[in-house]
Amino acid sequence: xxxxxxxxAAALLLSLSLPAVAADRISGETFATRSEVYAPHAMAATxxxxxxxIALDVMKAGGSAVDAAIAANAALGxxxxxxxxxxGDLFAIVWDPATQRLHGYNGSGRSPRSxxxxxxxxxxxxxxxxxxxxxxxxxxxxxGWFALHARFGRRPMAENLAPAIRYAREGHPVHEVIAHYWxxxxxxxxxxxGFAEQxxxxxxAPRTGEMWRNPNLADTLQKIADGGRxxxxxxxxxxxxxxxxxxxxxxxxxxxxxxxxxxxVDPVSTNYRGVDVWELPPSGQxxxxxxxxxxxxxxxxxxxxxxxxxxxxxxxxxxKLAFADRARWYADPAFHPAPVERLISKDYARERGALxxxxxALREVQPGTPAQLDxxxxxxLTTADADGMMVSLxxxxxxxxxxxxxxxxxxxxLQDRGEQFVLRDDHPNRxxxxxxxxxxxxxxxxxxxxxxxxxxxxxxGAMQPQGHVQILINMIDFGMNLQEAGDAPRIHxxxxxxxxxxxxxxxxxGRIELESGFPYATVRALMRxxxxxxxxxxxxxxxxxIMVNPHGxxxxxxxxxxxxxxxxx
Length: 569
Description:
The chain is an alpha+beta fold. Helix content is 37%, strand content 16%. The strands form four sheets. A seven-stranded antiparallel sheet has the order 1-18-17-13-12-9-8. Strands 7-4-3-11-10-2-19 form a seven-stranded antiparallel sheet. A three-stranded mixed sheet has the order 14-15-16. The chain is globular.
């Protein structure tokens, strides 16, 4: 069943028309597909029930929240290859109770050093292809696991990887939403060498409930368990990848893999109505969420009500302004540092916020000049252990199953993050060898008075910062609980200038895509303001969250758009 059908089924349970459902939400009654989950010791929330159970088993056996997150991520690479795998990148934010502070990790990989901008031009390309060998960048996930484990792990990595290895050999039944997206990927990706042989059953995707085994991935994970990170980046696995790309018109090399290292970074924050919201700085897009929150803070959203024209209009206008800066300034800071402190400042938000009108929608938005100082699929998971450690982790291959490039015998697909580069000389995110592309996947965290409050994320490309903001305003402004905040219908604005591809500027105001549940009175009011509005199937992302229970222990939530589960003990 597709995510849109899941949402429709949930709405039908209410036996109400969609406008009536929305009216209930605006009047203060909220809708959730399930209750929040409470547990005294530990909690895990992932997009697959088996991965959630693996994370809990790890923590029951004495592992930390980081051990649990690694084990769950390894399992999700097997069980949800439509969103992630060891051919992709990883980002994480960790609350460490020992130091009482947050630690950030940017586990994104770089472009091949032998591939140049001139090569794309020689091929007559104005954009990097979505699939095949050219968009492939170094996968950073495995390095990220070992970096996180070295600092915060308590169990041997071999034990963390053992559940995924066992399921890869013995098999597991494929879940409904995953089967839906897998079936969509097979026609697109089967042309690339190694994909059909390793990711189909007789040329088709596995069906809902059908057992799926991946012995090649089991062997690869076992090599990593035995030999550590270097088994992936400097051993036999790296040599197989090198030979595969050399034989298939690719550029990713052994040398690129051997040179890879992710990096620890300091999360950055803004305060929204007493809550400190934390994101990672570029090369990702996390600070867009902080910019949107700063732009919204002067408005009394609670008085307007959820789903009101004012709520939707203000959110979309703030998003347009933040995304104009996103298109101009966000890139690999090793090549083009963004003025992050200025971009997320309240003073800058006041300057930019003057462009918002309650009477009309913005059609064109130029980026600001903070340098006065001059469809993607993903998995998100979060874990929390009995000692108070919390992990917010996101991992992706990009575009669902990635590039389609699946080296023989390895059981995983390489990511296509390189598609995110711009093939222009005059842009910070232009393609350059050995550079990290602009990145969409972003974990999030929130604290109150210096103490952990919320670890959360929303999957789905450009929906991610929009989703982060909506979760927070649902809880802070509209008083929803952790589960309601994720199940509430979402707003997705599309059509802003993007920092990728041909970097075309927005000239028509873009489009508001509303999930079912908003009243048509709101749609009419938005259209009168000049917005283009439609009800659409998405993308609306997928949400997992863990919140500190003020009475002790944890609260967990997993929304209905994915196959996920929040559970604890």
